[in-house]
Amino acid sequence: MSATSSKLKNPNDSVMNQRVIKLAWPIFLQLLLGVSLGYVDTIMLSNYNSTAVGAIGNANQVLGFLTLAFNIISSATGIIVSQYLGAGKKEKMNMIYTVALSFNFVLSIVISLVVFIFSRNLLEAMQVPAAMLDESDMYMRIVGGTIFTQALINAFNSIFASNGKTVFGMIIGLGMNIINICGNALLLYGPLQVLGLGASGAAVSTCGSRVIAVIASVIYFYTVIKGKFSLKYLRPFPYDVLKSLLKLGIPTAGENISYDCSQLFLQAFINTMGIVAINAKIYANMLSMFTYMIALAAANATQIIVGHSVGAHDYDFAYRRVLKTLRFGMIISISVAIINWLISPFTLGLFTGDKAVIALGSTVMFIAIILEFGRTTNLVIINSMKAAGDVKFPTALAIFSMWILSVGLGWLLGIFFGMGLTGIWIAMAADEIFRGVVVLIRWIKGGWRGKRVVLEEKTNSNETAKATA
């Protein structure tokens, strides 16, 4: 086989032939539903009692950080599945599915046990007020003790998306919201309110929705994806597959953890600026979330296509696809950001009547227009670099830029020079734009090429032997 023919696009790969928008719109709705699922318990409990709301808020803060561990394998699973499907190596897919699901399950069981046993200790370490400690502890034991269900949902969603089945992930998200809302209504305000479960009732609804989602995912996995999960694929244990998963997943998880920690530092800076800055930041983040999810959906859809094309050795197709998505995503994101800024005096007024908060929030929304140039570029290109197997460079770049520009420059402008929240947002924009410029240059120069993770050493050796014979 010649070098030229080995780089031809896999003609049987339907995912590569799909338009980004077809894959992206279900991902966008899934992201939207995922955010709403996180707010459902809080909103429905707000009319029940304020203590329960605070209890859930503190518990979810701990659980949210722990679930980052699941992304180690879930994100890597999507990349590897995409590349192997693109390479046409479907015979190895069931082994990859089994390793990914098994590792995520075992890891999540360990985390579930840790949360269940040490729930109260973790909450006390966070200085949770005594008045809400009991409710927070019970909520975290129930939700955290069954957190393995969320790990499986994440892993299955990565598998479905990599197979081009993004609509089912959206359906799962919608179903979980409906079940959770109905369960909360029954336990908090309906016939079952006599049980007086409070926050525990909300926890039971959340767990119930996840269990049903796992069952639906398993059925879809076997019937539509035609995948198989069997322990026979683990004998002998495929260390090469696990090594590839960890090689891709650990840097990505490290980047996410670094981002969360940097955001905690920025929040600490903002907390010293007074209630106006704190509230303006919260409302600005809420208004910017819509723009962020549009760009993220396009980036995730492109990541799937790039994974398939890199698996098929078609780097030129991946190169063009990313730049095309970037142009389209930039137009949409910037347009939405501009509209967000223009209507911000009205939209911010829906949350607060404080004119100082509205004025500061509007200023921040203007800076967010500049920020979106960088953020959209980062989401589209960095996700595509990871899909190509180029994970170390964007991770190292992100950690450096987050702490030097976001945190360092944020302190300098916001605290030292007294620019407040405006200074923080300028620093965040500088971070996003700097990274955006660097990764765009790397993408154009092709530093991401040749980092394909599909294992084929044995196949190449056999082909070489046959050719020699």
Structure description:
About 45% of the residues are buried. With about 475 residues, this protein is mainly alpha-helical. It contains 16 helices and no strands. Residues about 1-10 and about 455-469 have low confidence and may be disordered. The longest helix is centred in the middle third of the chain and has 37 residues, at about 275-310. About 80% of the residues lie in helices and about 0% in strands.
Q: Over all CA atoms, what is the radius of gyration? A: 23 Å
Q: Residue ranges: pLDDT <50 for 5 or more in a row?
A: 1-8, 457-469
Number of strands: 0
**Relative strand content:** under 5%
> What order do the helices and strands follow?
HHHHHHHHHHHHHHHH
So how many helices? 16
Could you tell me the mean pLDDT?
85
Largest sheet: none
The gross shape turns out to be globular
Secondary structural class:
mainly alpha
What's the helical proportion of residues? Answer: over 70%
Intertermini distance? 14 Å
